[in-house]
Amino acid sequence: MVEHSGQFQSRVVAVTGGAQGLGRAIVAALAAQGASLAVLDRNGDGAQTAAAETVTGGATAIGVTCDVTDMNAVEAAVAEVTARFGRVDALVNNAGILPRRPLAEETVETWEETLRVNLRGPFLCTQKFGAVMKAQGGGAIVNIASIGGTVPTVDAGAYCASKAGVLALTRQTALEWGEAGIRANAVSPGYMQTAMTEDRYAIPGLKELRASVVPLGRVAGPEDVAGAVVFLLSDESSYINGHEVVVDGGLTLTTTRRVSPPT
Q1: What is the tens place of the pLDDT at every residue in 90-126?
Q2: Which residues are catalytic?
Q3: Total domains in the fold of the chain
């Protein structure tokens, strides 16, 4: 059984895409801090399993089937969470997809689906869960963006465009809702190995190659990013609003290294 620190005791946090990968790590990290969790995922069985594992660990959690692109589904999820817990104190917009295709070969269907999941989803969840937070007098939102929202990545044009939108949504929410006591911030991972990227890391030598260009010398795991999310939801970040925390091991600092003279 997890020994809770109590930092999030009596706080209710909704995490989208919480059934696996980074979302699951965020759920576990928050549970360890004493939070009550609503695990949202379009994979309903996965959401229920993640919630059951969290409860087994000693925390309080429910699994909620939710397609974040569907407004009715999001509204139903909000109703289910508030019916169970009576409130919502924080939201983590983590659900996302990462299709890979060169821009010249991108299809309208894939482009639009990526924007629906990665940008429409956070907008709908922010709006609907945020309404509950406003009524309560405050809350915190963390959006999972990506360094791809600032630095383009080959074969991921739709993903990068969607994450740039997530960063803009974060700043807009912070600006408009700060006076309601709601903080909004973003976490942008760099190279990270999760279920969503497992196919890439199955390519021989890729993980080692990527690790070699990261100043910290390794590719991140979900737990490396989850800690930043916990911080941004905590009281320790109570005056941080509208910011992006880059969790990339220093990767985005390495541009000049590639053109530096040999030593």
Answers
A1: 999 999 999 999 999 999 999 999 999 999 999 999 9
A2: 159
A3: 1
